[in-house]
Design goal:
Length: 272
């Protein structure tokens, strides 16, 4: 039965790629299987073939399917130590540029993008920054662009913000309205939200910093290599690459072209 299910999954992923252009074929097999089994449970489908029928013949289902397949676990100032290190070690480097381009790849619902915007604002360089926030999923991009998050999370986010070296009262950055926190409009002024697929899309600019945190862990080894090549080609000389705490440049073909800026926080600088 497991062998049959594996065949069904391969056919499903191939069909999605050929019909819609979304390529999940090189995602880590264990993660893909777990997500598909979750979809079957949530959608009350008997097997993977039934899911294939639904996703290929019901275009209204595709967006929901992408939501299931893409990981959207995020928080503002997630891993506060990363942001504190970014503030202390990366900001001084960015301040040397007259204009700063930053790519947040796999930005999900935008919490980490707004965290970065707040940090850059407090360091008085946001006015000369452009943040490109991209994700494969248009639904989460709409949420990110709105900049509205559950008010119940703000107490937790405030603690992360303070641990990340926050310099003001976190509540100054949003307005509370019923059960929602609406983030200040000025934080969006220098953010460009756009759909981008790391699996098949190319570089679209040269960046001073690229942050792609907790995305590569869901790709297989060959796809990780491909994405590392994309990031290397997209970074300017002495540009900064930030990865998630379970990710690294180790075993990538580009590792020798970087130096560790902060190994524990997975911050690297392109030196060649």
């Amino acid at each position: 039965m497991n062998e049959l299910e594996d065949i069904e999954i391969q056919l499903l992923l191939e069909g999605i790629f050929r019909y819609y252009g979304f390529d999940f074929r090189r995602y880590a097999p264990v993660a893909i299987k777990r997500r598909i089994q979750n979809i079957l449970y949530l959608e009350k489908l008997a097997n993977v073939s039934a899911l294939q029928e639904k996703v290929l013949h019901d275009r209204t289902f595709v967006e929901r399917f992408l939501g299931y397949m893409t990981v959207n676990v995020t928080a503002m100032f997630r891993d506060p130590r990363f942001y504190l290190t970014f503030r202390n070690k990366v900001i001084p480097l960015l301040k040397t540029y007259p204009f700063i381009r930053i790519w947040c790849a796999g930005c999900s619902t935008g919490e980490e993008v707004y965290s970065l915007a707040i940090l850059l604002y407090e360091e008085e360089i946001y006015h000369r920054c452009r943040i490109y926030a991209t994700d494969i999923n248009e639904t989460v991009l709409r949420t990110a662009k709105a900049g509205i998050f559950p008010l119940r999370l703000m107490q937790e986010y405030t603690q992360y913000y303070l641990q990340a070296g926050g310099k003001q009262s976190f509540s100054e950055y949003y307005t509370a309205a019923y059960d929602r926190a609406i983030f200040r409009a000025f934080l969006k002024e220098n953010i460009v939200f756009s759909q981008h697929n790391l699996v098949c899309d190319r570089s679209f600019n040269e960046f001073n910093a690229i942050l792609c945190r907790n995305v590569l862990i869901y790709f297989n080894q060959s796809l990780q290599q491909q994405v590392h090549k994309l990031f290397y080609e997209s970074l300017c000389l002495l540009g900064i690459l930030g990865l998630g705490n379970q990710e690294s440049l180790s075993l990538s073909q580009q590792e020798r072209y970087y130096k560790q800026l902060a190994g524990r926080e997975r911050l690297y600088q392109k030196i060649n």
